């Protein structure tokens, strides 16, 4: 697990290798990740959007921007947390992801970024 706190918002990430399969005559490696967003601040916040940088050992980085996470824009009250799971496909058994969430403090209406720590994606058979 990797963790990082930005402006009172703690991000924790757990990853898992799910297996490989062929798609369009190319092998793909499937990974899932579970992220917990914990509000350790004194104000309620809302997650508005996300920005991802996905690094695949055999390809150029992929940038993904989108609204919310898994179709939701959760409001997280002080002392509460929100957990979701998602995944990605790589063309190699090694990679990583990092990025940030765009959030808003609902008390002050100030928007801010929350860093998502860099986390590794690696197939268990490929680890020395």
TrEMBL record:
Record InterPro entries: ApaG_domain, ApaG_sf
Domain ApaG, residue spans: 3-128
SUPFAM superfamilies registered for this protein in UniProt: ApaG-like (SSF110069)
Pfam family, one: DUF525
Biological process per Gene Ontology, one example term: error-free translesion synthesis
Gene3D superfamilies: ApaG domain
Full protein name: Cobalt transporter
Native species: Siansivirga zeaxanthinifaciens CC-SAMT-1
């Amino acid at each position: 697990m990797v963790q990082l706190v930005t402006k009172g918002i703690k991000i924790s990430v757990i990853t898992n290798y799910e297996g490989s399969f062929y798609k369009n005559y190319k092998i793909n490696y499937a990974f899932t990740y579970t992220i917990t967003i914990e509000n350790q601040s004194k104000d309620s916040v809302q997650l508005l959007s996300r920005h991802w940088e996905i690094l695949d050992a055999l390809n150029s980085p992929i940038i993904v921007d989108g609204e919310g996470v898994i179709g939701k824009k959760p409001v997280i009250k002080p002392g509460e947390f929100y957990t979701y799971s998602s995944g990605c496909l790589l063309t190699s058994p090694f990679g990583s992801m990092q990025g940030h969430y765009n959030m808003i403090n609902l008390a002050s209406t100030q928007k801010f970024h929350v860093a998502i720590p860099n986390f590794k994606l690696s197939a268990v058979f490929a680890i020395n």
